Amino acid sequence: MAQLPAVTPESIKDERVAKTGLLRRLLVRPEMGALAGAVGVWVFFAIVAGDRGFTSMRGTANYLEVAAQLGILAVAVSLLMIGGEFDLSIGSTIGACGMIIALLSVEFGWNIWLALVMSLVFALIIGAFNGYLVLSTGLPSFIITLGTMLVIRGVTVGVTRRETGRTVVGGLDDVPGYERIHTLFASSFEIGGANFSVSILWWIGVALVGTWILMRTSFGNWIFGVGGNQQAARNVGVPVGLVKIVLFMGTAFAAWLVAAIQVLDAKSADVVRGGGSEFTAIIATVIGGTLLTGGYGSVIGAVFGALIYGMVRQGIVFAGVDPGWENAVLGTMLVVAVLVNRVIRTQAMGGRR
Amino acid sequence: MKRFFRPMALVMIALIGLAGFATNAMGQDSSDRSALRFIVVSHGQASDPFWSVVQNGVNQAATDMGVQVEYQAPPTFDMVAMSQLIDAAVASNPDGIVVSIPDADALGDSIKAAVAAGIPVISMNSGSDVAKEFGLLTHVGQTEYEAGLGAGERMGANGVTKALCVNQEVGNSALDDRCRGFTDGLAVSGGTVDVLQVDLNNPTEAQQRIEAAVTADGDINGVLTLGPTGAIPALEALRSADKLATVKLATFDLAPEVLEAIVAGEMLFAIDQQQYIQGYLPIVLLTLYNTNLNTIANPVLMTGPGFVTQENAAQVIELSKAGTR
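^ Those are the sequences you sent over. The predicted structure of the assembly is below.
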């Protein structure tokens, strides 16, 4: 009888146990496409607008500030979308929380810290209410939060007009205790001669917490489960209701944080603030590799998605494009970024050896 | 490779198309002035006919002075976005910046950073009260309170006793000042004023609100609007409520429909702040500052109020149609 050939790792042709190269393994991760997109966008604007300040420290501080405010929202929205739901009310919550802070501290003379806490409580109640409505009615969260978006915005405008007769409430810098809170939420630190907003640190912090929750806790597993297959998750014992309510409270918290940052930076609250941010947050999340259908996605990807958005939005200004064209350029670049993301992922997954 | 082709082609087409936008920023000349680059950051949305006249003034001045000018504005009345635009402008290191300052608190830090970076800044249209404090070269515009005062006195002299002040952008302190001045001006002859808020972006709704307010209160015999986006709905509202004969209508700022109404006697007067030169003059002043270190001694170069009445309206009509008034 002939000697059987030795069984070695190289002779195993079964691709199920074949080793995948590190590069391939990295590229398959949802956030890698977004990272590639971010690098690509940066290179594009460095070429087009590098001599006009885009690559300078000041320019970097500028688009990072825009990216940070969106990024905080995108982290929370990505967690919610992985869990299979949408929250369209965060824009209105930003406006409402900002106005609560301003009205309580400027018009009613409350302690500014107390005003901040009250607006946070308000935001969390809104989030819990959104979650509760979605659970009890069984309607798509898109519809529910569309409704709460309109109601919150309307109430904000109505109450503000009734209390002050205006739609902008300013004068926050005259409130006692303003200085310390301003340092916490709206100050800046200097690197290389440029002022970087502290909101960037908040963004990084929120992103770290978000990704830790998603990847390292059982709650994160529950999020994937609920988003992937809600019924199966329930059958396995995942508390679906709790997960959804907590996720909605998470997006409301993010809205509150952005509201606080904006109000303390502008020293005023405006009833229209935050309008449209619910959609840009979804865009940043989708660029980051999160599926609209839920169950798959990444917080780090949403971070890169927000970075792409900030670079595109401000890069257009650095490039000197007439503002009339701005939305056209923004839309084109965003679609391109998502395409690049998808191409890379498809290539990486299809070519797996 | 085939599967790759279509998405890659789209990517290439998109990038090439976008490079086209970039080329407008790359043209450079050898003569001195054309190397000067100024950035105008205003709060004027592209949909507002008032601001397209300002932009025309800016573009004409750029051509006449032989300099490069970029015009930037946020898509909505958003002070946070506007401050980020100003920061971006400062980071791109231009030879001068022109800003409008509808909210000095929200924009103050960004403007002060511009001045601290050594960039000459001129304010226009709004912010006359803070221009000196921020260290700006000058302010080119109309002081709103005084203009409102003039409007109130003129309306009072024409027999108005109770009026509406229709504000299309509440929160813009310049517009709030106009209504305040109007209230005080009308009070001189003993009249009273109520402020009615409408949405700049929704003319149909604005018209309905004005019509409702005028029909609900029969004592109202005067309406002052603060811009064409308020004036045109107000005209329609009074026409449809059949009150053109009893209610005296006047407005700030010009538009073709406004001028025609004045000629036809349907409107009493329009206050012209001459926004064309609010766009034109700052570019001239910045050019001269850069080439010749010229400065202006007045804290405010007043471009208004100018009253357009039935006497001079016809001539101004032709100019307004050309987009220069």
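Chain A has 14 helices and four strands. Chain A has a mean pLDDT of 87.

Shout if you want it in another format.
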